[in-house]
Amino acid sequence: MSKTWKGAKDFVGLEEVAKIEFLVPLFAEALGTFLLVLIGCASCITWVEGQSPSVLHIAFTFGLAVAALAQFLGPISGCHVNPAVTVGLLVSGNCTFLKALCYIVCQSCGAIAGSVVLKMLTPAPQVNLGLGATDLGVGVEAGQGIVMEAIVTFLLVLVVHAVTDPRRSDTKGWAPLAIGLAISVSHMAAIPFTGSSMNPARSLGPAVILTQWSNQWVYWVGPLAGGAIAGALYRMGFRSTKESEEASYDF
């Protein structure tokens, strides 16, 4: 009974979130998602009608933005900046339930704040052309969008687990770059299908500011499912079996 209680207590994580020091990683997650949405969605703005930014431009903006944020915020909060990543780490046992819940709230608030600032900085004609809101491509059905979002998020969360596995020493120092490249290559593949959200908070921010809720549920179901599956698979069989004294990247 005592082991069961200890396991449940560790899963919930009440002691962790009750500490005043926990406010620092919460702020880091809000700040990181704020900057990600502000900078990433800025790359999606159409400045000349009929001449949208290229897929390559958007893909590398998001990928490099996450890589830069991970380098700075990784040791502070783990730099999840994505509810799907947080859910994946929760499923794999690398994040407690209450911590995950608090992170997702802060990520969502940061994303909305990022969209607010981006709207304030953007001229009205460009705002009318969109602020990086995600929606399904022409002819893409909701089910297809969910599967595509789940697949690219699955890849991202697997990479996050692999490069932050404390049993691996070969990935030390490479985590931000590997994660950023995973995001970039996923964007290159998925932007024509879904806009390549991979991140429910990233889709939520522009949707709230522009009040455009078309297919918004797709960008929660797909990424969260993909992240959860990746976390479960990594926990069940994809972990490294090699021991290492220190992690390559600090959660």
From TrEMBL:
Q: Name one GO molecular function term.
A: channel activity
> What CDD domains does the annotation carry?
MIP
| Matches recorded under InterPro entries | Aquaporin-like (IPR023271), Aquaporin_transptr (IPR034294), MIP (IPR000425), MIP_CS (IPR022357)
Zinc-finger listed as a keyword? no
The membrane spanning regions, by residue number, are: 20-48, 54-73, 100-122, 142-163, 175-197, 217-234
Mainly localized where? membrane
Alphabetically ordered keywords of this record: Membrane, Repeat, Transmembrane, Transmembrane helix, Transport
**How does this protein sit in the membrane?**
Multi-pass membrane protein
Coiled-coil regions listed: none
Annotated compartments: Membrane
Q: Name one GO cellular component term.
A: plasma membrane
Instruction: Name the family.
Output: Belongs to the MIP/aquaporin (TC 1.A.8) family.
Which proteins does it associate with, and in what oligomeric form?
Homotetramer.
User: What name is this protein filed under?
Assistant: Aquaporin AQPAn.G
